[in-house]
Amino acid sequence: MRPGFFFQESRVSTHASATSIAALVIGSFAVVMSATTINVAIAPMMAEFAISHRLAQSFSSVFLGLTVVCAPLASWLADRFGAWRVFARLLLLYLLVSLLAGLSDSFAAMLTARAVQGLCAGIMQPLSLFLVLESANPARQGRTLSMFSLGVVMAPALGPTLAGFVVEHANWRHTFWLGVPPAMVALGLIVWRRPQERAVVTTPSRLDFAGLGFLAMLVAMVFLWPLLLEHSSGLAMLMALIWLCLVRVFWRQMQVREEPLIEPALLSHPAYFSGLLVTLAYGVGMYGSIFLIPLLLQNGLGESAVTTGNLLLLGGVALAVSIPLAGRLVDRFSSHLVVSIGLSCFAVSSLLLAWPGGLGSIAAGIVISRFALGMIIPGLYTSMARAVPDSLLRRGTAVTTMTRQAGGALGITLIGALLASLTQGVVAPLAQTPDQPYRVLFALISLLFLASLFAARRMNLRASD
């Protein structure tokens, strides 16, 4: 790869590597935060454009869906054009589109900008992950990944709080601009240090366009399923069965193609496969709790937005404490042990949120859940990186990111459907008080995380090249 404006081929120093990692963390923070900032702006958006809640909700579904579809593109783009070059160009695109969206008066233009943000986030998240893994000292891999986790976990958790402040004191359109300052800082660090591109030792493969289209269809069906469920539960059940059959067909195609979108060999490594199962549960828990906690407090218990924000802020503090602690524990002890501790803590926190107690138990549940999320990611990514050979690292990180986002998409879709059934009296015995539907869902999330502990036990196996 020839040196360009952002890059150079000379060997970088330790300080430059630290600066490069900081650019990746800050850049990831910028794009990942966009996943949840728009949720706070949905109500004023509906009022201004006179649109339905379902149409306004497409701002979230389009973004999350494109992060799933575009994640597998990261390794192909990196091998073909250079990982740092792609990361910097996409970060610049994200910055410009966000600025323009905040100035727009057109719903269609904003939705298009939201789609571009999702595309950028979908590719940049796995790019930043494997660039961090390639830059990190193996002896400090856990601590380095804990820095990366600040962008992945803190951003969606802090997004609604920052967006709420902007909506309250400025204009809801300015929520598009929240990611602009960190994106500018990350771009400045990249221009300053010009990180080194890793030489590509193999010819980049052809892009599997058919597989990409098939994946996009599967993701679209996930978000269309709730619409069908509103009209006919029988047709929704049929669609779910068809979707499962199509997933099997998709995987069979990946197994027979010479250059598949998703490398089937990844799943031949038991520790990596187990890590994917934990990652799927993690996506459900992270995005599901971000969705459910404000609803439990405000709709279920009648608490104010201020109280909700303060409790979520406590969770953010716990998250900030747990992430560096988890990185140190991963470097010192077994990474899968740290993951198991985090999964257990999240299961306990969900039980606290499911328990019919007062604000004290809910506050404890929120704090423990954020602490648990911070504990899981460094150990999870470290275990999965060690589980595959170096030749599959880039493709493995892309599939890992895709699985986490897919867990979020599936989780929010299923939680929304179950919540509608519980609140509308379809399951009447369970919906006796306003807070009961939300507590039932937290109990189900707790069971999911307890089950994922069995998968975590197999994550201590290393790859053999």
TrEMBL record:
Parts of the chain that traverse the membrane: 21-47, 59-78, 90-109, 115-133, 145-163, 175-195, 207-228, 234-251, 272-297, 309-330, 337-356, 362-385, 406-431, 437-456
The keyword Oxidoreductase belongs to this UniProt entry's keyword annotation: no
Stored SUPFAM superfamilies: MFS general substrate transporter (SSF103473)
Listed GO MF terms: transmembrane transporter activity
Ranges for domain Major facilitator superfamily (MFS) profile: 20-460
Family matches, as PROSITE patterns: MFS (PS50850)
Protein name per Swiss-Prot or TrEMBL: Major facilitator superfamily (MFS) profile domain-containing protein
Naturally occurring in which organism (per UniProt): Halopseudomonas phragmitis
